[in-house]
Amino acid sequence: MPKPVYEEGDVTVLWNQAVHTEREVTENRPDIIIKNKKEKTCTLIDVAIPTNRNVVQKEAEKKLKYKSLCIEIQRMWNLKYTIIPVIIGATGIVTRSLKKNLEAVPGIHSIDSHKRQLYLEHHT
């Protein structure tokens, strides 16, 4: 389990932390929040593993779910926001946009490295 808050330089990563806002926002706890003060960006990442037939629907739901929170983040922190849903069906079915969504995650990474990491975590 990652630390709830990780900071390095201008970047803060929040893991499963609620964002407290002046206005009430019911959906205020995405899985991961990456704040980059230097780039003035805030990336919200939410992960789901629904049944295979619901992957497209779940991706759309995740984008809408945090819209109010993003508006508050933009107002409070003056940061440009991005919502990145990471949806993988129960048997591995993915949406067409998964690769694009993962490439939008800040940092240096590759899809192959994510696959290797998942494999190692489940097979060692």
Notes on the structure:
- By secondary structure, the protein is of the alpha+beta class.
- The chain has a single domain (5-123), classed as Trna Endonuclease, Chain: A, domain 1 (3-Layer(aba) Sandwich).
- Helices cover 33% and strands 24% of the residues.
- The chain has 4 helices and 5 strands; from the N terminus they run ββββααβαα.
- The protein has helices at residues 55-65, 67-77, 98-103, 111-123, and strands at residues 5-8, 11-15, 32-36, 41-48, 80-87.
- Strands 1-2-3-4-5 form a 5-stranded mixed sheet.
- β1 (5-8) and β2 form a beta hairpin.
- It is globular and about 40 Å long.
- It starts with a strand and ends with a helix.
Layout: helices, strands, pairs:
Blueprint: E1 5-8, E2 11-15, E3 32-36, E4 41-48, H1 55-65, H2 67-77, E5 80-87, H3 98-103, H4 111-123
Parallel strand pairs: 4-5
Antiparallel strand pairs: 1-2, 2-3, 3-4
Give the overall silhouette: globular
Instruction: Order the strands across the largest sheet as they lie in space.
Output: 1-2-3-4-5
Q: Main sheet, how many strands, which sense, barrel? A: 5 strands, mixed
- Whole-number total of structural domains: 1
What is the H/E order?
EEEEHHEHH
Structural class: alpha+beta
Mean pLDDT: 86
How many strand segments?
5
